[in-house]
Amino acid sequence: MAKNQPDSQLRHVRRLLPAPALSKRPPSPPPQQPPRKARAPNVVAACEECRKQKCRCSGERPTCRRCLKWSIHCRYRELVTSETLKRANQDLQGRGHANEEILQLLRDLPAQEAHDVLARLRSGASVSSIVNQVRAGDLLLQLAVAPETRFRYEFPYWPEMPAEYITTDNRYLNSTLYKAASLYRSPLPGPGHDVAGTSPELGTDDLQSLYLKPFHAAHMVDPRLSDARPSLWTAVCDDDVLMRDLLAIWFRCEYQFTSACQKDYFLEDMVAKRQDFCSSLLVNIILAYSCVCYPRFAKRAEYWNPHTLVYRFLAEAKRLWELEAAEPRLTTIQAGMFFNVFHNLCGLDELGQSYRIHAIALANELGFYDGPITSPNEKLRHANIYTAWALYSWEALVAFSFMIPPLLKQPPHDQLPDPAQDSQWYGEIWLKYPSSQVLTPAYFGYGFKAKCELRLIMNEFCHSAYSTGSGGSVTLGEANKLRSKLLKWYDGLSRPLQPETIVLPAQLQLHMYYHHLLLSIYEPLLEAKTEQEPSPHSVVSEANRYMQTLIRLYYLRHGFESMDLFIVVPLVNAGFHCIDEINSGQPTPAQLEVLRSTLLLITKGLHSQRANHYLAEALFRVVRGRMRLQEAALLKTTLHFDEAEEYRKSAMVQTVRSHWPVSVVKKKEDLDNHILGNLVESYAHLNIDEGSEEDSKLGPGGSEGSTSSTRQTE
Question: What b-and-e string marks burial along 411-442, b requiring 16 or more CB atoms within 10 Å of the CB?
Answer without folding.
Answer: bbebebbebeeebebbbbbebebebbeeebeb
